[in-house]
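Structure first, sequence second, as always.
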């Protein structure tokens, strides 16, 4: 279980890592509806390292705001590795950031299928020159899935910045 203190610690360390590099961050969120951006901007002084957040809940928003090809969404579905990769890269292309995190998932209680049950979440991160993805199957109710996604997204970005120094 993640605590508010864990999230605060992660954000403070992430802020420091981004500031040390002079990098700005952007988010591209679907299932979390802006919760990652809200967590980042809860930290005082976040304007020095957080550029913007895109809440692209609809498929049209993913295409219009982030440049995700509609054909990619049709072919793979919004909750897919291909689409979150395009979201992460689109967030950087459409902002002043060089780092991004993107998420798309099925938080429930409805919307799941046999192939993509409730709790299926795809995440992507972009840092200069590199984009990577990870799929999760998270347990719990809608709130649990969304909160776990926020924690995981930020923690993994921090870990990647720590190991890339």
């Amino acid at each position: 279980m993640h605590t508010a203190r864990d999230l605060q610690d992660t954000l403070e360390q992430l802020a420091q890592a981004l500031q040390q590099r002079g990098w700005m961050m952007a988010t591209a969120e679907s299932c979390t509806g802006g919760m990652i951006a809200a967590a980042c901007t809860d930290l005082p002084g976040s304007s020095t390292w957080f550029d913007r957040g895109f809440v692209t809940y609809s498929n049209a928003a993913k295409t219009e705001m982030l440049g995700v090809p509609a054909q990619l969404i049709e072919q793979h579905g919004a909750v897919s590795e291909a689409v979150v990769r395009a979201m992460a890269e689109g967030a950087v292309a459409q902002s002043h950031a060089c780092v991004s995190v993107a998420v798309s998932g099925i938080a429930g209680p409805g919307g799941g299928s046999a192939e993509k049950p409730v709790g299926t979440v795809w995440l992507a991160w972009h840092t200069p020159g590199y984009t990577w993805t990870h799929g999760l199957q998270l347990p719990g109710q809608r709130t649990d899935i969304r909160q776990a996604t926020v924690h995981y997204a930020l923690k993994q970005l921090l870990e990647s910045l720590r190991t890339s120094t």
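Margin note: Residues 4-163 form a domain with the Maf protein fold (CATH 3.90.950.20).
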